[in-house]
Amino acid sequence: MAEKKETDKLEQNQKEKPIPFLLNVVLTGFIGGVLWSGIAYFTYIFHFTTISPNIFFEPWAAGEWKDSWIGILLSIIGYGIVSIGAALIYYGLFRKLRSMWVGAAYGIGLFLIVILLLNPLFKSMKSLTELDINTLITCVCIYLLYGVFIGFSISYEEEERMNQEQQQGKDVSQN
Fold first, then answer.
1. Does Transmembrane appear among the keywords (predicted)?
2. Gap between the Cα atoms of 108 and 112, Å rounded
């Protein structure tokens, strides 16, 4: 009996404490925002889109700094922070729906919100009908993939959490 207690205390026999689910959603949102806005920046550099990532600061920041590397970096981090909100909304509404298509539709919905509703905030961004086809296709694809990333990550984690709870319930009932 004493040997069992000692082996339970060993580091290799300790189970990792899982990250709280809400913290995981926040991390997923931030990483998704940084990742996909970084990819969007590369599409801007290679002229697949005419929408610059530093458009993020357009409504409230003045100065030339936002066109420099620091402005781009801060814009990407800003998208990560805003993306936390988008991930929390997905968590609240759709986390139990484990389908790639739900995430894709969420991404398209976000694209439409940004292009149609938030467009007046960004003076340098053209309206939906004025965007060239390359910009339109690139932006739709980035938002779609962002939605799939957020949606599938959150839904997968929700399903894993539910499976662990069910497994723990079975283990308790068997003892």
1. yes
2. 6
